[in-house]
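Data availability (excerpt). The following record was deposited with the supplementary files.
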Amino acid sequence: MDTTERTEQALAAERRKRELLEAADRVVLRDGPGASMNAIAAEAGITKPILYRHFGDKGGLYAALAKRHTDALLASLRAALDAPSERRARVEATLDTYLSAIEGAPQVYRFLMHPADAASPGEQGFDVGRHSAPLLRRLGEELAEVIAERVDLGSDSERLARVWGHGIVGMMHAAGDWWLGERPCSRAELVRDLADLLWGRLAAAGNREGGPGF
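Predicted structure:
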């Protein structure tokens, strides 16, 4: 097999995997944490063994879906952070972007963050922490990088940026999870209240000299 054939095969496999992920997304949007490999295979018009061949098991499929949605969320969060507006407005836009994402696709959110809630018959449930923690950790590291690039936090800047990045993500996740379940207030009210909580040292910190600012 020459290089061209191998490239074509790799592209075809990648295209097929993308199609299967789109089928999985449709089932997750409908069934949430109860989405089963059987239902996803049926939606894609294939057998479950073929689905396993592409992803290994439900954990592999979960990881692929998590990356797909986390990539999209991170792009939206970065856009909010880079918007040409004052710092408080960007903080609120970032919080609202996250909350809007989980509000707009609650079944996807529950599948990613609460996969053990509805294991299908014959399929083992997930350890929620084992599967959701890497998503939150990745979001925390990405936000820490943005903070370190834009805010002058002094000699201990890198460590403090990581503390803040992971702390803010943890706050968004915990508050958003509670809010999505109980809806005790509007999204706008929650955004304002969380921004008020953050508006301490972050508001007073200077921007990095020569950097993009925050």
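Summary of structural features: The beta strands are 151-152, 206-207.
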